[in-house]
Amino acid sequence: MQSQQRRAVVAATATGKTLxxxxxxxxxxxxxxxxxxxxxxTFVLAAQRWVPISHWRxxxxxxxxxxxxxxxxxxxxxxxxxxxxxxxxxxIALSPDGARLAVAxxxxxxxxxxxxxxxxxxxxxxxxxxxxVWPGSGWIGLNKPYGQALSWAANGRxxxxxxxxxxxxxxxxxxxxxxxxxxxxxRASRLVLVFPHNGRAGWLVDSNALLTPDGSLVVxxxxxxxxxxxxxxxxxxxxxxxxxxxxxxxxxDQWASSAPWIxxxxxxxxxxGAGGRVMIVVSLVRHGGASTPTFAIGVQTGRRFExxxxxxxxxxxxxxxxxxxx
Length: 326
Fold this sequence. Notes:
Elements: E1 8-11, E2 18-22, E3 30-36, E4 42-48, E5 62-68, E6 74-79, E7 88-94, E8 100-106, E9 118-123, E10 129-133, E11 138-140, E12 150-152, E13 158-165, E14 172-178, E15 190-195, E16 210-211, E17 217-227, E18 232-242, E19 248-257, E20 268-272, E21 278-285, E22 294-301, E23 304-307, H1 310-313
Antiparallel strand pairs: 1-2, 3-4, 4-5, 5-6, 7-8, 8-9, 9-10, 11-13, 12-13, 13-14, 14-15, 16-17, 17-18, 18-19, 20-21, 21-22, 22-23
């Protein structure tokens, strides 16, 4: 989904060719979020009125279901029976069977003092709702209001989410919520990973941490800093961590450099298969004799990275947030 034009684009991963374009129905002027079910044909889009950035304010968000044919053509856009969301959305995730939509929301700006952020889970058939609240100050989602901060296991029960702790900003936690258990506090969720920002340890600020569909792993790009200010060394790796123990299982797409530009976390995970053996990621790519790598979207299979066609690379560019769902 291209945020500059605020429309949804259906494209073929294999070729990068645009198959269809879906514009928001009136009076909405923007699609801000997109999430997919496991069937590759069912999507939920979040629409709201377009507001210039100079006059930005939270606008009510309405959710629509988009179903694609086998050839990738839209069968129609249908408004879901979910009440309009009036808070600030920081992530959505459609369950694998398309029956439930998880929404992370709060009422303040991304980097302001945020109290009691929450996750709402709606039935896409009836609009019925259940809420879990994180009591206290925090932010559920990424450092910026885009990306995939929520992900479901294939059982449609376990929901992974990323939490920023304002008590020790910008510490990031990855937690697992059992949505079938009673209760309404997110503090009952299970802590899997902690990314402290102390200048040396692994950290995750603007990237996705996705739960694999089988629920066994959390996959995240991890940056580690070594050396000192005069002789820095930065290591990047897309790392698979056990969702049970929180310990790293393996690392792929590994990079190391002392170049200042690599202090920015340029890797990301956009989609992962059941056991993390096949992923769609954003990786660094060297072109010929160029000294500075660029980044590309591609398929990571084990330690092999295969960039997707040139048309796909336009889906994500530096400084232009793009919501992508497979």
